[in-house]
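I have been asked to look over a protein record a colleague put together. Alongside the sequence sits a line of tokens, each denoting a local backbone shape. Please read both lines and tell me whether the tokens look consistent with the sequence. Take the sequence as given and treat only the tokens as open to question. I have pasted the whole thing underneath without changing anything:
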Amino acid sequence: MKRFYLTAAIAAATLALPALPALAQTAEITIGITTTTTGPGAALGIPERNALEFVPKEIGGVPLKVIVLDDGGDPTTATTNARRFVTESKADIIMGSALTPPTIAVSNVANEAGIPHFGLAPFPITPERMKWSVAMPQPIPIMGKVLYEHMKAHNVKTVGYIGYSDSYGDLWFNDFKAQGVPMGLALADEERFARPDTSVTGQVLKLVAANPDAILVGASGTAAALPQTELRERGYQGLIYQTHGAASMDFIRIAGKAAEGVLMASGPVMDPEDQPDTALTKKPGTALNAAYEGKYGPHSRSQFAGHSYDAFEILKRVIPVALKTAKPGTPEFREAIRQALLSEREMAASQGVYNFTEKDRYGLDDRSRILLTVKDGKYTLAK
């Protein structure tokens, strides 16, 4: 990863010279990425950063200048990073962040500036964020539906909820009310906790006392293992469901034996080997995992690595289209990328097949999800 930080340093030095910015505008495509490589969300952001080692260095014959900054999961820092990309780096494209709150902040900046933005965490794409932002992770309703369907198939009638006390926790709780409740699932109890919390004993005791048939955990990264572990230690024997925000080997490492039997929504990148050869996600997923595990070790694959990797898979499709009508470093080029994102169809990547529209900024369907469980310390497809 040193080369990305070196690129950032060189870029900063270059932009400080008064005679060079105009040349940079036509010679390369600048991509600014803010992600979370420190703090409680690092388990999500580090794989996103690591995956950048396996993305193209040029597209359409034009070099890519990739600038990576850490935001620590803080929306204020993410906002500062995004503004630096706009004002100092003259970015053509912005990506980030790894967590929902800073991703919202980055989207706000990108839409103010008129720069294509790839969100690397699920986030609410409201009308004011819709023109320039798209999201790489699967939307909550697609992932939620596979969990609720599994609950119904296994005679679950009451569900307890424990999730983050922020926008990610809200997204999942609201989806349960919007989809799960109409499917006949009743909410037994709702509990919340903050991302940095080191204990959820009080919340778990209330959930155990409510004794629901199943519990849905609306959390991400290693923090998702906290309620998982506490629930099992407090004797809860029901089904525990986790979101795609928890789909990493770190979850198993932290939760240990408590991870056994968990039901987890995930993108197909976590198990491309078991996909049919006709699946458009199989080839990119296999390629990413081979490269990632080749460097970081067996079973190091990550849902989150797929988010940043897939953004470049999409760029491989849209940048050549944009280059036909405009040059990098111009508003026209940014607009051409935005238009190409909406016109290109069936853009295959490791986590799904993307078809963005003016109204659908996630652009994914049921091909973007699988259901995992943990058996003997390893992920396997759930039944």
Summary: Residues 1-25 have pLDDT under 50 and may be disordered. The radius of gyration is 21 Å.
